[in-house]
Amino acid sequence: MDRNNYNDFSQEADIENDGGRRGCGGVGVGVGVVDERNESNVSSYIQREAALTEVLLKSRVNNTSQIAIIGANVCPIESLDYEFVENEIFKQDWRSRRRVHIIQYLFLKWTLALLIGLSTGLVGFLNNLAVENIAGYKLLLIGNLMLNDKHYQAFAAFAGLNMILAICAAALCAFIAPAAAGSGIPEVKAYLNGVDGHSILAPSTLFVKIFGSIFGVSAGFVVGKEGPMVHTGACIANFLGQGGSRKYHLTWKWLRYFKNDRDRRDLITCGAAAGVAAAFRSPVGGVLFALEEAASWWRSALLWRTFFTTAVVAMVVRSLIEICRSGKCGLFGQGGLIMFDVNSADPSYNTPDLLAIMLIGVLGGIFGSLYNYLVDKVLRTYSIINERGPVFKVLLVITVSLLTSCCAFGLPWLIKCTSCPIGMEKECPTIGRFGKYRSFQCQPGYYNDLASIFLNTSDNAIRNLFSSTNEDEFKLSTLFIFFVAIYFLGIVTYGIAVPSGLFIPVILAGASYGRFVGRLLGSTLNLDVGLFALLGAASFLGGTMRMTVSLCIILLELTNDLLMLPLVMLVLLISKTVADSFNKGVYDQIVEMKGLPYMEAHAEPYMRQLVAGDVCSGPLITFSGVEKVSNILHALRMTGHNGFPVIDEPPFSDAPELCGLVLRSHLLVLLKGKKFAKNQVLTGSEFLRMFHAFDFAKPGSGKGLHLEDLDISDDEMEMYVDLHPVTNTSPYTVVETMSLAKASVLFRQLGLRHLCVVPKTPGVRNVVVLSVI
Amino acid sequence: MDRNNYNDFSQEADIENDGGRRGCGGVGVGVGVVDERNESNVSSYIQREAALTEVLLKSRVNNTSQIAIIGANVCPIESLDYEFVENEIFKQDWRSRRRVHIIQYLFLKWTLALLIGLSTGLVGFLNNLAVENIAGYKLLLIGNLMLNDKHYQAFAAFAGLNMILAICAAALCAFIAPAAAGSGIPEVKAYLNGVDGHSILAPSTLFVKIFGSIFGVSAGFVVGKEGPMVHTGACIANFLGQGGSRKYHLTWKWLRYFKNDRDRRDLITCGAAAGVAAAFRSPVGGVLFALEEAASWWRSALLWRTFFTTAVVAMVVRSLIEICRSGKCGLFGQGGLIMFDVNSADPSYNTPDLLAIMLIGVLGGIFGSLYNYLVDKVLRTYSIINERGPVFKVLLVITVSLLTSCCAFGLPWLIKCTSCPIGMEKECPTIGRFGKYRSFQCQPGYYNDLASIFLNTSDNAIRNLFSSTNEDEFKLSTLFIFFVAIYFLGIVTYGIAVPSGLFIPVILAGASYGRFVGRLLGSTLNLDVGLFALLGAASFLGGTMRMTVSLCIILLELTNDLLMLPLVMLVLLISKTVADSFNKGVYDQIVEMKGLPYMEAHAEPYMRQLVAGDVCSGPLITFSGVEKVSNILHALRMTGHNGFPVIDEPPFSDAPELCGLVLRSHLLVLLKGKKFAKNQVLTGSEFLRMFHAFDFAKPGSGKGLHLEDLDISDDEMEMYVDLHPVTNTSPYTVVETMSLAKASVLFRQLGLRHLCVVPKTPGVRNVVVLSVI
């Protein structure tokens, strides 16, 4: 409450009569200031509030009234607005819209979907190609040094190369685009919920995400490239939807059709789905991921377009892999994009199998919720370090890189060598040749099973863990050490300033304990250990991410084994249920912790006890239908509100009445146009000739007109401007006695940014605007 | 307009002042009366109107102003209401709800999902078992007679048995539950959109659907058991959700939690998904079907529960099949639930392959849209016959049965015999043994390829068509004749009074032309003809049903071959795009033709030019906060409205103001309770002690209190009743100048049944209720 009131989220007018209930709950949240009042807690649900320079949101984690400001995300956020602004301009445009425009629009829509698919597929493939080659040659070098018994040189080379790659990734992230750090899925999820964080989808973020991810994964961190691919897909969609970068004059006129939040949201949904499709070669999984995890609004037509995009991705990736088959792609053999072979025999299972599977499900739930808890704690600690500046970010990355190198290189020494199984000699490495196993410190003919998964690319490690050709491939101790190491490395790695996906660490840890359980109970079980590894991965994924159908499909598309479906479903059901009883999914947790004001689909129970009027505060700023320029400028300058009710008064109407809602961005365009009149007269028709709907199209985030762009002379200040043509005459309204729960459902279901609260008692003309900034 | 005004869909009051705009578009639609006025056309979109005894809806098919009344469906329909009725009773209940209630509720929710899964799985399995055995023994008898050259006896037995089975199915349908005819998917789709047709989900419908489907499919009709399974699943869900049948005193007290439209809708969504899962052994496909095709409202939590249900179905079906493996299930071998083996080698394709696949996609689109067009025409013709009475229905079924028998038995004579391929002798039938091929009129060692698909169960026929073991298995002429026959038999069969799914006819026809194209271009192609048959089936499914992701998954789960995914996607994309340019999907078409007032997610363009006030008509009936009993009874008797605005007047408020909305069903309970007062006083608190929220729970369709159940004396007529405790004080409202497009989006997105239209000008207290009956 000690901050300027510019971030009051709601406004209220009180022109003829004070209706009694108003003035409650002015909700300004200041840095470090804890507002214990119930109203503020309430309103943090219905509003998404941000000052123009800082995210000042109350953490909703556990009502401990902490202020969560994550270093990398002290950036302006803005809400998206999915409402049709039905003003005169819009209606004129609607009437004049010819068939040819509709065809242009449809053509563009599908072309964009195609382009998103093509680019995401290409980027996904190149990402894999780069990672497989960089990491591959690095590991080959170490392997050769080890075979020649140059152990210290090998470690130096390993740690050194890892650190160089890590520094590259961290530098990109810390200095160019801090928004590219982390998985990116929470940010995309928040965007699709209506929270537009600054530079979340900017071209610079795209650039850093692609290259940072390549360097980060190659640097041997326990991170995946899957989460970043989702973010990359969304960035590509945003980039294409904007028709390129305006900064570099790469825009395309036709794309003005897409200059609104609705179409942008659809494109980005397609992009996120394309990202998953490219990361896992899982087109259907991509669609379902977008549907289940990413998107907050969905419609059937979008299913269809998303499906098209992911189909294109699948085609592109497939053809590129086809080209690589001839061996032109270096170490990227069949490997790159994970596609695992599991035992494809029809699995028949007995009761001990089912019990073991249930155990895995329970373990997955427990490990998963603990993982989420620890990730949250670590992220909060890191955010303190990361806030100090880019250099500290890089230092943190170097520390974690060293720790990872030490673990990966040090732990395999604890393991005794295993002799190469008979008939599988070609899997054992010799100098200059890659096999499935790594010899590490062992003699020829022997291999180190821990090194085979630790000193390998993550895709190969997973493939080894899922493999069912050799049941005794991994010792129990190996699996145990690997699980513990990956579990904790995964936790400490997420949150450093490199693009880092969570899928791969989770799959690795899950597969290792799945295989552990499988081996432990080996004699009583029917199913082979490879399948248990798969089920372990499924259980841990379910326990951390809490997705169901999409995970199921992604795993099936990865393993190409539909007969596993019932078992995977069972495991996911158990692990999700167990984990849900402890905490939230990891992405939801990160969204919350980053202070992104995510709006849940359901109203909180206590909101049923309050009415919309209870969360309103004043003073309300309204405009007349024909308003003085100076008044408008003053209001824009004094408040951060993005919407203002317009009240028609005599002589323009018989009695004062709500005309509609006018948006700040539209006011700015209007003032920039300087179509002013000396007197208070209607100038609507002139105005309509002068402006076109596209002048009012919403530019990308942070690119609109600003107050400083206006240059209004003193004479003009005293003139009038007719607001009717830009006033949305159909704003959604609720009566002040409407329960808060229902009002919040309205906000969320219709994707609103503003909601007018109208009085219940006639004769009193108060209009209140609940809004999300 | 010549009908009583009882089906005016909207009401309007005009107490102090006539606002000018009112009185427009009184929308009564009478039998055979065409209302050419624009308003009525408009309002048919925003309203769903039905008289109490007849569906009197304007067909929206092609604006030719036809009245579509389908014989079997002249039944009352009612809208569902997904709004939380936030009245005093609800709030009291909400406050008193203890943790134990929530746990009870959750427990029940999941138990019900489990039960739905178990029962649907069981029913699906038994259905298959019965069909495979009845049809199997029938075909075995014919086969033996044919091998003994008793051709006439064979035909007589074939046609006779088919007819007996057909009559059984038709009699059940015509006399017991007419709503069980047809696929059932359109009705379930409409239900989930908010249209509750009478007896669509009744226990009698469930009974007839199960047995009618068994008889119908066994009778050799070109119908599937998949559509009916979806309907069966939905009926089972409804039955369980009601806690059994109240008629037979099989109810369970706890289930009162589920006595509202929201929970019922969720259960039925689960049921529909379980139906698909049981029909195709496709759990993920079931979830996606429910999401893409069936449901109009969706939320993440439901995905999770639906997934659980289908997982249970998959488990049940799997275990039952496991039991059958030992051969205890008669002719139900591995056969029953379709699960096809296609060539599982990694398909590599070249340009001619892709061109051929695109051709199949285009053909699928054209054939599909033509199919929909013809089905629509045939259904309209049949409805004239079916309207005449149950006997005519049975006669129509007999005619179609004879036609089918003649085709199935007659057409194979046109085909020359083929010699049994070397090495596949065991597939050729001898007396008493089943093989893949049918000998029909041929000598031992030869087979008739058309008979092999025509005189076979549909699952086996599809398996034959998809088979890739013998490329020359089917001659071009065979495939052509089969395609033409199935295409037209499929069209004339749908719409007769038996439960009839569309999936199987469409898959059969699609597979035959797919294989035809594959064989025709055989020499230039890489892929084998079995895969082309699969792609043909996909294309035709896409062309008729216009689903994408769910079809894709269902086909993949059927064939267990994920590597086909990109090709199936391509084919579906092409065929849907082509077909969409001609007409709507077959289910949407049937919904439309049956006069079920389905509400689309999107507003029609012209609705942007109108405002909510434009589609209002009068007179409005309102109640005071404390109203005279006689007034209420009069209003209930004179109108069919289901919601009435309550206006508080002095002395209960300072000025007249909208208090909320009261529902007809709640008024009936209130009047039944007879808690009246002599004077106009507030009796709310007494009232709350007397009633419990469950007294106001919404019973199943057609089971609520009726006006005739009330017994009010003349004295009581003059007394007053306090409506405040049952008034929903938070109805959604729009201002009268809100654009109609936005108002309709509100209706659909929030699942409303009533929407209050409030005046723009203060001082004028008109409240209009737009409603869907």
Automatic annotation (TrEMBL), chains A, B:
<feature type="compositionally biased region" description="Polar residues">
    <location>
        <begin position="1"/>
        <end position="10"/>
    </location>
</feature>
<keyword id="KW-0851">Voltage-gated channel</keyword>
<keyword id="KW-0472">Membrane</keyword>
<dbReference type="InterPro" id="IPR046342">
    <property type="entry name" value="CBS_dom_sf"/>
</dbReference>
<feature type="transmembrane region" description="Helical">
    <location>
        <begin position="394"/>
        <end position="415"/>
    </location>
</feature>
<feature type="transmembrane region" description="Helical">
    <location>
        <begin position="154"/>
        <end position="180"/>
    </location>
</feature>
<keyword id="KW-0869">Chloride channel</keyword>
<dbReference type="GO" id="GO:0034707">
    <property type="term" value="C:chloride channel complex"/>
</dbReference>
<keyword id="KW-0812">Transmembrane</keyword>
<dbReference type="GO" id="GO:0009705">
    <property type="term" value="C:plant-type vacuole membrane"/>
</dbReference>
<feature type="transmembrane region" description="Helical">
    <location>
        <begin position="267"/>
        <end position="290"/>
    </location>
</feature>
<feature type="transmembrane region" description="Helical">
    <location>
        <begin position="562"/>
        <end position="579"/>
    </location>
</feature>
<keyword id="KW-0407">Ion channel</keyword>
<feature type="transmembrane region" description="Helical">
    <location>
        <begin position="476"/>
        <end position="496"/>
    </location>
</feature>
<dbReference type="InterPro" id="IPR014743">
    <property type="entry name" value="Cl-channel_core"/>
</dbReference>
<dbReference type="InterPro" id="IPR001807">
    <property type="entry name" value="ClC"/>
</dbReference>
<feature type="transmembrane region" description="Helical">
    <location>
        <begin position="200"/>
        <end position="223"/>
    </location>
</feature>
<dbReference type="InterPro" id="IPR002251">
    <property type="entry name" value="Cl_channel_pln"/>
</dbReference>
<dbReference type="Pfam" id="PF00654">
    <property type="entry name" value="Voltage_CLC"/>
</dbReference>
<keyword id="KW-0813">Transport</keyword>
<feature type="transmembrane region" description="Helical">
    <location>
        <begin position="102"/>
        <end position="123"/>
    </location>
</feature>
<keyword id="KW-0406">Ion transport</keyword>
<keyword id="KW-0677">Repeat</keyword>
<dbReference type="GO" id="GO:0005247">
    <property type="term" value="F:voltage-gated chloride channel activity"/>
</dbReference>
<keyword id="KW-0129">CBS domain</keyword>
<comment type="similarity">
    <text>Belongs to the chloride channel (TC 2.A.49) family.</text>
</comment>
<dbReference type="InterPro" id="IPR051280">
    <property type="entry name" value="Cl-channel/antiporter"/>
</dbReference>
<feature type="region of interest" description="Disordered">
    <location>
        <begin position="1"/>
        <end position="21"/>
    </location>
</feature>
<feature type="transmembrane region" description="Helical">
    <location>
        <begin position="354"/>
        <end position="374"/>
    </location>
</feature>
<keyword id="KW-1133">Transmembrane helix</keyword>
<feature type="transmembrane region" description="Helical">
    <location>
        <begin position="129"/>
        <end position="147"/>
    </location>
</feature>
<keyword id="KW-0868">Chloride</keyword>
<protein>
    <submittedName>
        <fullName>Chloride channel CLC-c-like</fullName>
    </submittedName>
</protein>
